[in-house]
């Protein structure tokens, strides 16, 4: 009800329209500003009335608002306007805490449903990303095979578990250039498989060829072929171990798991989605998943925040194991 130039049932020409900025429960719930409507209420000689209609949330105990018109503000002397909302029966002002508690189960159910929906959508996105990531990995492996083809390649190009494979090797651009004999030493699954290959003499190239070769069967539980070349069957001599990294080729169709996995522990203060404030939570989750997808065991250590006890994501999953003092 701002001061005006006299009572009128029509908005005066050139009159600026004020906006209502409102919230609820001491501004715990905030809503967007809305322009007010000129009211048909006829006030005193120097009054103009404005009005606006809006919905009050079911969990609102009070309405907070201020009015803005251009550069002017009516905020009740910096205290803001505040109007109590009548509570539904049987609650009264003396039982406002019980009224607030009555929303907990409903809010928990809504939050749980929203979280489950978000997790399902995230699972679909993760499956799509995993498919795209695997396709990218296969392309990268194909590129690596093409890059090494002038030195080494296999037939078939993609090695399959339980089937034979032939390894071809051209030593012309390696440490074994000019060698009269080339030996192959191999293994599987990061050299951890019980079956070893060689050192075995490779078949020399033909009169017009450049590639030495060796053929063998791949075990059914092999996931990776590991090998090096040398000009001696063992001991002192020249070796081509790819600068100390050895040669490694993936095998498809193998059974079992790759041995020698790492146990990685991430200690952090955030992890999405259970405890996320900024970007760190996303990084911790994404990094842990990426390492886990490589076959390693990953754990994330977080502080035991009190809000974990009400988290719908962790509901029914938390258990006590131990405790210790810190600092």
Short description:
The protein is α+β, with helices and mostly antiparallel strands and 327 residues long. It has helices at 96-101, 104-148, 279-293; strands at 19-24, 29-30, 34-35, 37-38, 50-51, 62-69, 72-74, 81-84, 152-155, 159-160, 164-169, 183-188, 197-201, 212-217, 224-230, 239-240, 247-252, 263-267, 297-301.
Descriptive notes:
- This protein is of the alpha+beta class.
- It contains 3 helices and 19 strands.
- Strands 1, 2, 3, 6, 7 and 8 form a 6-stranded antiparallel beta sheet that branches.
- A hairpin with an 8-residue loop joins β15 (224-230) and β16.
- The radius of gyration is 36 Å and the shape is elongated.
- 11% of the residues are buried.
- The mean pLDDT is 87.
Keywords:
327 residues; alpha+beta; six-stranded antiparallel beta sheet; six-stranded mixed beta sheet
Number of helices: 3
Mean pLDDT: 87
Distance between the termini: 59 Å
Identify the overall geometry. elongated
The count of strands amounts to 19
Round the Cα radius of gyration to an integer and report it.
36 Å
Largest sheet: 6 strands, antiparallel
String of helices and strands: EEEEEEEEHHEEEEEEEEEEHE
Structural class given helices, strands, pairing? alpha+beta
Which stretches are poorly predicted, pLDDT < 50 over at least 5 residues?
none
Q: Which bin fits the share of residues in helices?
A: 10-25%
What percentage of the residues does DSSP assign to strands (E)? Answer: 25-35%
């Amino acid at each position: 009800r701002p001061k005006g130039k006299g009572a009128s049932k029509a908005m005066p020409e050139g009159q600026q329209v004020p906006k209502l900025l409102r919230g609820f429960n001491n501004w715990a719930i905030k809503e967007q500003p809305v322009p007010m409507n000129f009211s048909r209420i006829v006030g005193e000689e120097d009054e103009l009335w404005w009005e606006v209609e809006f919905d009050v949330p079911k969990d609102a105990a009070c309405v907070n608002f201020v009015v803005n018109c251009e550069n002017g503000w009516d905020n009740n002397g910096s205290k803001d306007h505040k109007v109590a909302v009548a509570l539904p029966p049987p609650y009264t002002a003396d039982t406002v805490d019980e009224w607030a508690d009555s929303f907990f189960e409903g809010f928990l159910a809504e939050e749980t449903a929203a979280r489950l929906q978000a997790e399902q959508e995230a699972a679909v996105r993760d499956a799509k990303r995993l498919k795209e990531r695997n396709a990218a990995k296969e392309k990268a492996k194909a590129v690596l095979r093409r890059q090494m083809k002038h030195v080494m390649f296999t037939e078939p190009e993609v090695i399959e578990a339980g089937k034979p494979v032939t390894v071809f090797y051209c030593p012309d651009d390696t440490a074994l250039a000019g060698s009269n004999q080339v030996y192959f030493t191999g293994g599987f699954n990061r050299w951890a498989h019980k079956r070893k290959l060689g050192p075995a003499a490779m078949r020399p190239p033909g009169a017009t060829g450049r590639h030495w070769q060796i053929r063998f069967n791949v075990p059914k539980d092999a996931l990776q072929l590991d090998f090096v070349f040398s000009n001696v069957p063992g001991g002192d001599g020249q070796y081509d171990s790819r600068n100390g990294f050895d040669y490694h080729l993936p095998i498809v169709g193998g059974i079992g798991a790759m041995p020698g996995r790492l146990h990685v522990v991430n200690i952090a203060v955030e992890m999405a989605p259970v405890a996320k404030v900024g970007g760190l939570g996303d990084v911790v989750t994404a990094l842990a998943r990426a390492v886990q997808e490589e076959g390693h065991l990953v754990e994330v250590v977080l502080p035991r925040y009190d809000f974990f006890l009400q988290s719908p994501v962790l509901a029914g999953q938390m258990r006590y194991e131990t405790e210790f003092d810190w600092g």
